[in-house]
Amino acid sequence: MTALDVNQLIESMAADIKQRMPNMDQSPPLMVGIHTGGAWVAEHLHQKLGLDTQLSRLNISFYRDDFTRIGMHPQVLPSQMLTNIEGRSIILVDDVLYTGRTIRAALNEIFDYGRPQSILLATLVERDGRELPIQADVVGTHVDLDADQQIKLTGPEPLALSIISSKQNSTIE
Amino acid sequence: MSYRHNIQLTEDKKLRHFLTIEGIPRNVLVEILNTAETFSSVANQAVKKVPLLRGKTIVNLFFENSTRTRTTFELAAKRLSADVLNLNISVSATSKGESLLDTLRNLEAMQSDMFVVRHAESGAAHFIAQHAPKHISVINAGDGWHAHPTQAMLDMFTIRRHFNDFYPLKVAIVGDILHSRVARSQIHALTTLGANEVRVIAPKTLIPVDINSMGVHVYHDLKQGLADVNVIIILRLQQERMAGAFLPSQQEYFHTYGLTQEKLEYASDDVIVMHPGPINRGVEIESLVADGERSVILEQVRNGIAVRMAIMSMAMGSYQAKQEGV
After folding, report:
1. Does B317 touch chain A if contact means CB atoms closer than 8 Å?
2. Which residues of A touch B49 (CB under 8 A)?
């Protein structure tokens, strides 16, 4: 597999977002990153797009659908959301789009803060295996993986992608 | 009555019931504080609710009156999207002669998932946890003179928000230690979390005889006891629990042990003043201090919601996980 340059992927995501939001300057969108990997990617995107609206971070653990199966998850930082999202355009950022369940949880949480005008989904990596009807609008790259493989973003500095398989570990940077 | 440690924890050491701080390892207490920190952002949402306990039924079993504790438990449960039943048993079936176990059997038949118990008898929550079916989690909301562990945890949460770490802290608990389940739970929590020094300050008649086994320093003089402390916890003078003559008079108590602005000067500059409520103004604390800039009394009430959300969801989640064998 060819090496993945995370910075280059983020660069191309930023260009894609600009194209999709031509009036970004007149009505600046809000950027929301999902803890933890999505928030790292969002920080870079936020900077590259030169957004001066505050970056929000979402902890979706209380909206997950697996509480009845596995109970509470180990805790990360609380959500830090800009409280007034009413009528705003949101760019939702995550590291890996796989089953779509994380995004489902994030959408529910966002709506508990208000009713946004629109939400655009941007993910660094997308892979097959969707279990819900959710697709990304902006994608850094598509990766083909076997069911026993996982792709993981490590960071925050430097950001790197690694593929973990139950058989062996390999890193692609 | 047996205080088996493991009744509160699952086999893999996760919180199952929350009855007393004793026997709960430090890492679980820290996990409660961290989880509560995460829940604190829910109050910023336009819809102040998360769907975690949707479809669960939580019963507030209050055999003894309490407004603040009951309402914060109720709010916490509702913010977790659970359904809440408030049962004021003192004016309910038991007065018609129904036994405690029969009341419990009836509530089980209604398919409840959690009991939050407040009772005037020490050990009541333990008793209920031992006799309730496996799927029901029990939280102690105060039993007799024994324990009030959720109050202690919200106090720990408030302290950690102001000081980050427990190791350097000197904490003084002032007042009616003898009748205080809050003080007992606070002392256990502070020593488990590693506070530098825990002091109790009270007249001899209001200090329990077994105090020395709890790892605290005892003071009978308020000024001496307050020297250089970072946290002052004022306890309410519990007149309803005082059957005998413990004190000459309230005025006398205020003169000797009441926290005033002047006495506050003996503490460290960064001191915070706490009180579990309800306050007897002019008895254990003067209004100037209770409403003053060092007071965090209302913060305690606010933090009580996030801390109780954390404890409820952790206790409920550990059973779910066990069922799935994950």
Report:
1. yes
2. 112
- Contact call for A67 and B35, based on CB within 8 A: no
pTM reported for the whole predicted model: 0.89
Query: pLDDT of A143-157, one tens digit each?
Result: 999 888 999 999 888
Domains and CATH numbers, chain B: 5-148+302-324 (3.40.50.1370), 149-296 (3.40.50.1370)
Q: What residue ranges do the domains of chain A occupy?
A: 6-143
List the structure tokens of B303.
């933090």
Question: Chain A closest CA to B60's CA: distance in Å?
Answer: 22
Chain A residue with CA closest to B40: the answer is A78
CB A140 within 8 A of CB A9: yes
Q: Which residues of B touch A76 (CB under 8 A)?
A: 38
B205 touches chain A (CB under 8 A): no
> Dihedrals φ, ψ of A10, to 5°?
-65, -40
A25-53, pLDDT tens digit by residue?
Answer: 888 899 999 999 999 999 999 999 999 88
Strand A56-58 and strand A30-34: pairing?
A: parallel
0.85 surpassed by complex ipTM: no
Q: Nearest CB to A112: which of B38, B47, B320?
A: B47
Q: At a CB cut-off of 8 Å and minimum separation 6, what does B97 contact? A: none
List the beta strands (DSSP E) in chain B.
Answer: 57-62, 83-88, 114-119, 137-143, 170-174, 197-201, 217-219, 231-234, 272-274
* Cβ pair A39, A45 in contact under 8 A: no
CB of A165 within 8 A of CB of A149? yes
Strand partners for A80: A57
> Under CATH, what is the fold of the domain A6-143?
Rossmann fold (3.40.50)
What is the rounded end-to-end Cα distance, in angstroms, of chain B?
33
B31 touches chain A (CB under 8 A): yes
Chain B partners of A112 at a C-beta cutoff of 8 Å?
45-47, 49-50
Angle of helix B68-79 relative to helix B297-324, nearest 10 degrees? 50
The string of pLDDT tens digits covering residues B193-228 is: 999 999 999 999 899 988 888 999 999 999 999 999
Say if the Cβ atoms of A112 and B45 lie within 8 Å. Answer: yes
